Amino acid sequence: GIREAVKQSAEKEKNSLLVLDDVTASLKDNEIQHILRELIFNRRHYRLSIIILVQSYNSMPLGIRKTLTNVLMYKPRNKKETTAIFEELIALPREEAEDVMRFVFDRPYAFKF
After folding, report:
1. Taking Cα atoms as reference points, which of 6, 60, 13, 61 lies closest to residue 38?
2. DSSP code of 81?
3. Which of 15, 22, 97, 105 has its CA 20 to 30 A from that of 83?
């Protein structure tokens, strides 16, 4: 599986990149979440970078979202998603965070990293 391939590459002092595209339905499986969290928590030892592409921030399980180190995002689709992003990612008072969001997303295809 992926875990074994990543470990073998690390043993050979090679880096790995794991790209997960639109897999949020699979992330509802506890076993898959467990494996992914193990890869995330040990990514430096495994010489592993992970990119997870999702349509909606809230579609990822909270346990996975809490392990994220960088987030590139486009304008949130709804208030629930915006609230989750404020609470989990933006370490500013709500009013300041809203000002930042308005500034960043002032035109189509704008994004925040």
Report:
1. 6
2. H
3. 22
- Length of the chain equals 113
Radius of gyration of the chain (CA): 16
DSSP category for residue 59: G
Residues 62 and 93 both lie in one domain: no
- Domain span at residue 106 reads 70-113
Could you tell me whether strands 73-74 and 111-112 are parallel, antiparallel, or unpaired per DSSP bridges?
Answer: antiparallel
Q: Say if CB 28 and CB 60 are below 8 A apart.
A: no
- Do 12 and 62 share a domain, yes or no? yes
Q: Specify the DSSP class assigned to residue 3.
A: H
One domain, residues 18 and 63: yes
Place of tokens 């639109």: 22
SS3 of the chain: helix, strand, coil, percent, to 5: 50, 15, 40
Q: Quick one: 94 and 83 in the same domain?
A: yes
Model pLDDT for residues 53-86, shown as the tens digit of each residue:
999 999 999 989 999 889 998 888 888 998 888 8
pTM for this one?
Answer: 0.83
